[in-house]
C-alpha cells in the first residue's frame, strides 16, 4: 500500500474521540477497557497488540453501549449474533415511490424484490454463541459488557490459533493466520485483506478515547512482519478478482448484474455505455442496502430488479462488483445522476436504532472510492462524493419519493479522514462560507421513527445538524416546500438537515448561532465556539444575475430542445418548485454541460449521448444538490 494511503487510513487511530457516559449515565473508570484487553490477553495467551489491532479494525474500540452493528455484531470485538432475522433481506430500491432509473423517457420502474431463499447463517454472523461456549460467559454479558466481549474475542483468536496448529506465541507475527480466520471471511483474499489491515494498525500503533470515555492505547510495533504463509493452512477457498475494477488493497469479486430482455421489449437491469469516453463520471453515490449481504446479492442478479456498481460487506469489508464503470447502473433515482455516477451499496440499515458500521467496511469503501476518484478524475469533496440522500428529485412530482440513505448515522467526517481529505478550516473565523463539521460522537440530535412512528430513536452520534427558522431551539424547523408536508424530526425527513462536509454561504450570525442560505431561505443552526458544528471555509458561489428577482432551480442538467438529433425525443427541462432569490449565495460544485443519455431500448445501437450548448452549475441548495443555468447566475469567490 502506498505510504500516503496508509497514512490516510491510520489517521483516525491517532485522534481522540470525546468522553461519553456509559449506559448507566456514570462513566466507568477511564482505563477499565485497557485493563480488560490486558487481562484477556494474559488469560488466553493472545498478544495484547493482536487483540487491540483486531478490535480497532472491528469497532475502533467503541462499545456502542451494547447496541448491535448493522450485521448483529456487539462490542469492541464485534462478536456477531445475527440470528435468523438477518437471513432474509429487503432493499430500499423496492420501497417508497422513487423510480431507481429516474428517466421520464421510460415507464417508471418500481421493482418488486425477488423471492429470497432462506439460508443458514454463515459462521461470520454467529461468533458470539461460539465465544459463549469457549468462555462460559453468558451471551448477554458478551453483548453488553465490554470486558466480557474482549474476553470472548481473545478466546476466539486463541481457538483459531490452536485449530491452525500454531503455538500460543507471545510474538504477534505468529498470529497472521488466526487473525485472518477471525475475520469470518470464506475466501483467502478477503481474509488476507482483513489481516493486512490489522497488522497495519499494529505497526502504526495509536491511542483513542472511545465512545464510552475509555482511554485505549496501542504501542507501535513498526518491526512486526507477520508470517503470511499461515494463510495457506487456514482452509479458505481461493477467490478471483478477475473482471473487477478494484484496487489491489481490497478483496473484490465479480458477481455480474444481468443485461437481459424479459418480454414486451422490457429489459434490465442496467444500460451498456462507453464511459468516460462518451460522458464523464462525475459522482460516486453512497447507499446503504437496507438488507443483508446474501439477499441483496440475489436481488442485483435478477434482471427484473435494479442495479448498482458495487456492494460492500460490513463484517470484513469484502466487495462485490456488479456493473462495469463504463455502463450505467439504475440506483440513484435520477437519470442524469445515474448516467454520470458509480453507485456503492453498503450493507446496513438507515433507521436501525444504534446500528453502526464496522471500521473494516469504512476502510474498504474508502480505498475503493480513492481508486475510482483517481481513475475517473472525481474530486474528493461532498459535491461529488454524495449520499443517495443528496441526489435531487428530477421533477416536482418525484421529490417526496426520493430516498434518504445512508442517513444521519453514516460518519462522513471519519469517512473523509480515511479518504485523506479531512474537513479542515480553509478561511478565517468570520468567513462567508462554512463547512458543516460537528463532532460525530457529541452531536446527537433527537430523531424519531426508527422503530415506531413519532417515538424517539435510541441516542446516537450523527453527521447531521438541524436547521431552524430562527436562532432559537424552540423555533420552527426549516420547511422544504418540495416535500409538501410540515417538517419533523423523523429519521427520514431531510427538510431541515445539513450533513458533514456540505458547504453553505453564511447569511447571518447571532451569538452562538449561524444562518446559511438553504432552499431559498435563511436557516439557522446552533454553532457555539466551544463545540462548533461547522468550520470556516472558502470557495466559489453563485448569485442570481443582476436584474433577476430569482432564478429557477433544476434537479437535472438537461440540454436545450434544439440539441436533440432526429430520433431522440427532446426531454423537458422542468424546474423544481424552488427559486433562488436575488442576494442569496450558494456554493458551487462545478460547471457542467447540459447532457442527456438516451437509452430506452435493449439494442444499444440506438443509444445516444446528447450534449447541448446550455451550461449549468451544480450547487449545494438544500440537503440535496441541485442545478442552475449558468446564464441565470453570476459566479464569484467567497472567503
The chain-level mean pLDDT equals: 91
Q: How many extended strands?
A: 28
DSSP summary: helix tally: 12
- CATH fold type of the largest domain: Lysozyme
Task: Please report which band the strand proportion falls in: under 5%, 5-15%, 15-25%, 25-35%, 35-45% or over 45%.
Answer: 15-25%
State the separation between the terminal residues, measured CA to CA.
37 Å
Helix content: 10-25%
Shape: globular
Walk me through this protein's architecture.
The relative contact order is 0.11. This protein has 639 residues and is of the alpha+beta class. The strands form nine sheets. Strands 5-11-10-13-9-14 form a six-stranded mixed β-sheet, sandwiched between helices. A five-stranded antiparallel β-sheet has the order 20-19-18-15-21, with no helix packed on it. Helices cover 21% and strands 21% of the residues. The longest helix is centred in the N-terminal third of the chain and has 18 residues, at 146-163. Residues 1-8, 14-24 and 84-89 have low confidence and may be disordered. The protein has three domains: 3-82 and 121-233, Lysozyme; 240-408, Lysozyme-like, CATH 3.40.80.10; 543-638, no CATH class. It has helices at residues 3-14, 32-44, 48-59, 127-135, 139-144, 146-163, 176-182, 188-204, 293-300, 335-338, 359-376, 412-418, and strands at residues 73-74, 79-80, 206-209, 215-218, 252-254, 260-261, 267-268, 270-271, 283-288, 310-312, 319-321, 328-329, 341-346, 385-387, 433-436, 464-466, 497-499, 503-510, 513-518, 521-526, 534-537, 539-544, 550-554, 575-581, 586-598, 608-620, 625-629, 633-638.
Amino acid at each position: 500500500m502506498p505510504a500516503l494511503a496508509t497514512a490516510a487510513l491510520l489517521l483516525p487511530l491517532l485522534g481522540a474521540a470525546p468522553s461519553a457516559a456509559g449506559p448507566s449515565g456514570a462513566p466507568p473508570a477511564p482505563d477499565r477497557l485497557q485493563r480488560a484487553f490486558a487481562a484477556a490477553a494474559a488469560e488466553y495467551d493472545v498478544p495484547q497488540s493482536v487483540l487491540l489491532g483486531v478490535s480497532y479494525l472491528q469497532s475502533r474500540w467503541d462499545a456502542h453501549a451494547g447496541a448491535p452493528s448493522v450485521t448483529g455484531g456487539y462490542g469492541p470485538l464485534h462478536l456477531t449474533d445475527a440470528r435468523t432475522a438477518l437471513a432474509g433481506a429487503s432493499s430500499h430500491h423496492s420501497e417508497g415511490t422513487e423510480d431507481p432509473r429516474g428517466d421520464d423517457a421510460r415507464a417508471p420502474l418500481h421493482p418488486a424484490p425477488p423471492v429470497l431463499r432462506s439460508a443458514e447463517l454463515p459462521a461470520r454472523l454467529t461468533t458470539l454463541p461460539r465465544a459463549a461456549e469457549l468462555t462460559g460467559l453468558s451471551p448477554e454479558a458478551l453483548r453488553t459488557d465490554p470486558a466480557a466481549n474482549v474476553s470472548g474475542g481473545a478466546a476466539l483468536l486463541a481457538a483459531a490459533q490452536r485449530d491452525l496448529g500454531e503455538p500460543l506465541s507471545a510474538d504477534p507475527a505468529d498470529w497472521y493466520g488466526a487473525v485472518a480466520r477471525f475475520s469470518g471471511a470464506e475466501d483467502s483474499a478477503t481474509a488476507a485483506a482483513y489481516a493486512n489491515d490489522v497488522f497495519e494498525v499494529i505497526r502504526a500503533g495509536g491511542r483513542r478515547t472511545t465512545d464510552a470515555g475509555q482511554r485505549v492505547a496501542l504501542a507501535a510495533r513498526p518491526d512486526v512482519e507477520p508470517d503470511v504463509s499461515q494463510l495457506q493452512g487456514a482452509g479458505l477457498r481461493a477467490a478471483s478478482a478477475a473482471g473487477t475494477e478494484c484496487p489491489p488493497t481490497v478483496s473484490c469479486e465479480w458477481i455480474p448484474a444481468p443485461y437481459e430482455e424479459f418480454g414486451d421489449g422490457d429489459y434490465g437491469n442496467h444500460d451498456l455505455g462507453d464511459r468516460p469516453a462518451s460522458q464523464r463520471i462525475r459522482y460516486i453515490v453512497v447507499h446503504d442496502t437496507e438488507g443483508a449481504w446474501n439477499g441483496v446479492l440475489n436481488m442485483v442478479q435478477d434482471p427484473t430488479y435494479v442495479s448498482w456498481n458495487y456492494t460492500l460487506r460490513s463484517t470484513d469489508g469484502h466487495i462485490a462488483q456488479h456493473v462495469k464503470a463504463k455502463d450505467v447502473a439504475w440506483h440513484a433515482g435520477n437519470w442524469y445522476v445515474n448516467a454520470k455516477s458509480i453507485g456503492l451499496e453498503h450493507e446496513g440499515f438507515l433507521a436501525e436504532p444504534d446500528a453502526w458500521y464496522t471500521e473494516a467496511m469504512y476502510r474498504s469503501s474508502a480505498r475503493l472510492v480513492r481508486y475510482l476518484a483517481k481513475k475517473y478524475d472525481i474530486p474528493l469533496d461532498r459535491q461529488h462524493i454524495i449520499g443517495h440522500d443528496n441526489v435531487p428529485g428530477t421533477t416536482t412530482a418525484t421529490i417526496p419519493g426520493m430516498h434518504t440513505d445512508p442517513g444521519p448515522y453514516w460518519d462522513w467526517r471519519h469517512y473523509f479522514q480515511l479518504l485523506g481529505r479531512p474537513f479542515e478550516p480553509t478561511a478565517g473565523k468570520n468567513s462567508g462560507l462554512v463547512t458543516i463539521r460537528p463532532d460525530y460522537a457529541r452531536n446527537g440530535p433527537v430523531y424519531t421513527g426508527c422503530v415506531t412512528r413519532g417515538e424517539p430513536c435510541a441516542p446516537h452520534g450523527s453527521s447531521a445538524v438541524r436547521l431552524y427558522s430562527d436562532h432559537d431551539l424552540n423555533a420552527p424547523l426549516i420547511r422544504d416546500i418540495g416535500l409538501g408536508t410540515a417538517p419533523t424530526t423523523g429519521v427520514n425527513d431531510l427538510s431541515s438537515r445539513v450533513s458533514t462536509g456540505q458547504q453553505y454561504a453564511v447569511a447571518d450570525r447571532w451569538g452562538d448561532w449561524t444562518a446559511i442560505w438553504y432552499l431559498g431561505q435563511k436557516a439557522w443552526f446552533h454553532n457555539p465556539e466551544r463545540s462548533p458544528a461547522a468550520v470556516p471555509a472558502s470557495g466559489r458561489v453563485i448569485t442570481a444575475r443582476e436584474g433577476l428577482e430569482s432564478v429557477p432551480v433544476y434537479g437535472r442538467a438537461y440540454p436545450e430542445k434544439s440539441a436533440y438529433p432526429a430520433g431522440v425525443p427532446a426531454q423537458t427541462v422542468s424546474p423544481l418548485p424552488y427559486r433562488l432569490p436575488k442576494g442569496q449565495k450558494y456554493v458551487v460544485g462545478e460547471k457542467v454541460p447540459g447532457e442527456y443519455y438516451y437509452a430506452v431500448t435493449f439494442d444499444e445501437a440506438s443509444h445516444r449521448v446528447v450534449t447541448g450548448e446550455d451550461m449549468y452549475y451544480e450547487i449545494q441548495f438544500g440537503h440535496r444538490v441541485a442545478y442552475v443555468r449558468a446564464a441565470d447566475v453570476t459566479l464569484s469567490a467567497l472567503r
